[in-house]
């Protein structure tokens, strides 16, 4: 096969011409193809793209971001993942306990039992749960269970690293984190679609140029550190990577590096649940001038409506957001209430008939902050808000963990509407959930 020799580029001496692909030597000696272009990330296939020459300074020190840099040697990482999968499968085949008798643990237990694996029971540090049953499985304190040489799956969204440190004191124990579990057993991804967790793990390794180019769109160093850790969590099946970059959960959607009080005063909440996000917003920034809450699931919608029933400036819609008017049914388990926390007069078993609407067709007043956490519908909802985003340039807080391509696809969606947003990213859990892209 004939290969084309790319012209070498010297950042100290040369000016990068738009649209031309160069060969660039990085500080660690690696050589990569790179171009300067305004093209969308979906069009990036065989080189690194940057939109401004100033990002060359970040690219030149790619070795400072070890998980991003490792994407340049994807075959080695894929081989390591293959061996890890086989080892974890063997461990799980022996039977195991699940540490965490709540949402995450319940999800993992259901998946394991559907595969015929032996779940020995739940472990939890909460004394109030001692002796209770969760779906027929006993809940025990770890101190009352013989765990030497056993296999324990750590199932917690915000305390997984602390639990791992606690359990490492047990002789011979073999710990499996949530990412290892889902990858080994070909489990579902965090969204409601059909993607497997393996897609989230392998996508950056199969499309390294696209993910590295998305990394170079980020505009603050903290975001670059978060993105590097997230790539490590995906490609290395790590949860430890989260420890140095995780932000407090109370700041989710509202990080003050990106969201100002003036933005929060006029708030659109897509995926409002029971209204808790609005209440957290107001605890951070004070009462809103106007809020539009969209929640398609009936029990949650009624709870949100009840919580703001005396507030004429808060409008609650039993709708989802979409690119165009749509209707569907949603069977019956609530996407976010797997553990039955929500107390509602509407039974959780009811079928929700969901109407999707474009934000542009509903909201006419000025919008300052637009938050989207809608189980993989974020891209469609952004397209349905084109007029609002073009007119008001609201700060956007967009969940980026429901689809394996969210890290770059959502950047494309927003830049197709307005190209003048800066971009940041934050993590609010120690698993691959509660990840927010900010456009500000």
UniProtKB/TrEMBL annotation:
Coiled coil: none annotated. GO terms for molecular function: methyltransferase activity. It comes from Bowmanella yangjiangensis. The keyword Signal does not apply. Residues 348-412 form the Methyltransferase FkbM domain. One of its GO terms (biological process) is methylation. This is FkbM family methyltransferase. NCBIfam families: fkbM_fam (TIGR01444). Keywords: Methyltransferase, Transferase.
């Amino acid at each position: 096969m004939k290969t084309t020799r790319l012209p070498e580029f010297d950042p100290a001496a040369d000016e990068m011409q738009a649209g031309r692909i160069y060969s660039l030597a990085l500080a660690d000696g690696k050589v990569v193809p790179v171009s300067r272009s305004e093209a969308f990330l979906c069009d990036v296939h065989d080189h690194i793209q940057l939109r401004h020459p100033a990002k060359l300074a970040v690219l030149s020190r790619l070795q400072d971001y070890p998980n991003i840099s490792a994407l340049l040697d994807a075959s080695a990482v894929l081989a390591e993942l293959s061996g890890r999968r086989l080892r974890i499968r063997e461990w799980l085949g022996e039977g195991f306990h699940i540490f965490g008798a709540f949402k995450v643990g319940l999800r993992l237990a259901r998946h394991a039992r559907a595969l015929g694996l032996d779940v020995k029971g739940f472990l939890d540090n909460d004394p109030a749960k001692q002796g209770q049953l969760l779906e027929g499985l006993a809940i025990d304190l770890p101190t009352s269970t013989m765990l030497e040489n056993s296999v324990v799956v750590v199932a917690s969204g915000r305390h997984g690293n602390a639990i791992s440190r606690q359990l490492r004191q047990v002789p011979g124990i073999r710990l499996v984190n949530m990412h290892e579990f889902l990858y080994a057993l070909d489990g579902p991804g965090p969204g409601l679609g059909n993607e497997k967790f393996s897609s989230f793990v392998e996508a950056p390794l199969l499309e390294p140029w696209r993910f590295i180019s998305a990394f170079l769109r980020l505009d603050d160093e903290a975001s670059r550190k978060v993105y590097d850790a997230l790539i490590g969590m995906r490609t290395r099946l790590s949860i430890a990577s989260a420890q140095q970059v995780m932000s407090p959960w109370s700041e989710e959607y509202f990080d003050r590096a990106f969201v100002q009080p003036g933005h929060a005063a006029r708030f659109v909440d897509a995926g409002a649940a029971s209204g808790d996000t609005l209440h957290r917003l107001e605890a951070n920034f004070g009462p809103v001038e106007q809020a539009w809450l969209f929640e398609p699931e009936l029990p949650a919608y009624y709870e949100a409506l009840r919580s703001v029933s005396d507030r004429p400036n808060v409008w609650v819609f039993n709708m989802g957001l979409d690119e165009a008017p749509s209707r569907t049914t949603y069977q019956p388990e609530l996407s976010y209430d797997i553990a039955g926390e929500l107390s509602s007069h509407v039974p959780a078993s009811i079928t929700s008939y969901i109407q999707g609407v474009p934000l542009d067709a509903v909201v006419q007043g000025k919008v300052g902050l637009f938050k989207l956490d809608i189980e993989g519908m974020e891209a469609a909802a952004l397209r349905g808000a084109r007029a609002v985003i073009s007119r008001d340039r609201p700060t956007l807080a967009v969940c980026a963990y429901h689809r394996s391509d969210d890290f770059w696809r959502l950047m494309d969606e927003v830049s197709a509407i307005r190209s003048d947003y800066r971009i940041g990213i934050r993590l609010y859990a120690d698993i691959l959930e509660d990840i927010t892209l900010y456009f500000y």
